[in-house]
User: Fold these one by one.
Assistant:
Number 1:
Amino acid sequence: MATSAASVAESANSVASSAASVASSAASLANEANSVAKSAATAASTATAAQSAADEAASAASQADANNSNAASQASTASQVASGASQAASQADKTASQASSTAEKAQSVATNAGSDAAKYPNNSAVTSAASTASSAASVAQSAVSTASSAASVAASQASTASSANAVASSAATVASNANDIASSAAVAASSYAQAGDSSAASSAASQATSAAAVASSAQAVASSAASVAQSASEADSSAASVASSATSTASAANEMASSAAAATSRAAAAQSAADKEAAMNQAGDAAKTASSATATTSSAATQATTDASAASSYAKTASSAATAIGSVANQSRSQASAVANLASKTTDATVASAASQAASAASAADSAASVASSASAVAQSAAKLPAPPLLKQMRCTVRPKLLNQLPRFMPHWQHRLPKLVINQLLIHMLLRPPVLPAKQ
């Protein structure tokens, strides 16, 4: 009985020992499972962080690519604007050269008119026309200065646009390089994420973000440079317009100078013809003197009629020139206002200079309009002068005895009366019958 109880106790002890061993093994397995679970959780967290870093890198690369595209577009715009500014500057330079050539012609015409006026200083028609030609030449020269200044401004603005284009191009290159770096970093971050290396993936994502920031800054620089190029191009175009208007003013002034010079030449020719007529009236016997006086006076009357017609034509030409120059003056004022408006929107010194030059051009155009108006008034007055009657419409008897007495009176008339007045007196004396003394 005691033996059986001992055997049972031993068996129970063995079972308990086995159960304890099983419990110990189970506890060990539980610990290992817990460790595995922790490792799995850590791995999952690492993988999540790596994937997040990879996603961030991909987003940064996408942003860098967009900034790169914008920078390239801005650089292209700046290049086109700079090219247009260069063409405008070239055109302004050609226009200024044309204005200079026109002014030289006007000056030459005015010089010739001055030479004619110097021969007849007492003839107001000659001196007035020569003065008008000289004033027109001065206006043309002033327009040349304006056109030259505008061309200089246009060249300066074209240079500014070119520099801005270079900056935009460099910024586009920087943005492109930054985009390449961001793309490479994004690819690396994705690889690290797949490998589960969250630290490396995070570092690559940081590089991609930095590269994207660089691309964004480069895009902003390119955009600013394109804006500068656009502003410079607008100022360049305005300066070219000012140069063109100044050239038009110079051309109109040259036409006015030519018309005035032609009037000077015709007035001088008329004065010369009058002088010759007076000389012919003083010479020869009565018959030749009467015949010459009749023919010369008839020619002078015909010439006066022709001159009157020409004066009317010149008056119309001067009026048209005054209207054209007035239109140019209005255009110059409008362009000056446009450039001033542009100058008010920026602090760029070159734009302000362009505005000043535009204002000068408008002032020069106003001066040209004033001169043109004066020339038109002179031409209108000249056109209204009455022409002398033709001798062929008159009937008279020439007294030889009176004709023989003319040379004796001429010296007294010559130093007291203008030549045109002397000619009129001679004609009246030739045509009117003498007053004979009453018979005793």
Note: Residues 116 and 268 are 6 Å apart (CA to CA).
Number 2:
Amino acid sequence: MVRASIRRLFIRCGSPPTTSGANRAIRAIRYQPICGSPILIPPERPTFNEPWEAQAFAMAVSLNEKGLFTWTEWAAALAAEISADESRPYYESWLAALEKLVEAKSMMTGKERLARIEAWDRAARATPHGKPIELR
């Protein structure tokens, strides 16, 4: 008589089967078909938290479109600013990169930039709350 040799691929568990002891109630799961239902997507956060962030973004895009710097130069400047202070908010790094790139490309000197900042600060202090700030 020839016996087939069957190799076992499992080890029998020594624990009692899950049906041991008192029967447990099976909790029913309520099924509700969702086919054709709208997908609820949470509202997106605004791209910009403050108006100045959008303005800084627009200035960078505008200066690039005028050919004053390339996106490769911009990416390097922004990466350097983010690396310099990773805790700084993103658009503050964006603005710092823009200021440094404008100065490096001789679009404006550091002295001119500081004079412009002071002029905007004076205009802001002289403008009533809620009114648009105008630089004259």
Note: The radius of gyration is 33 Å.
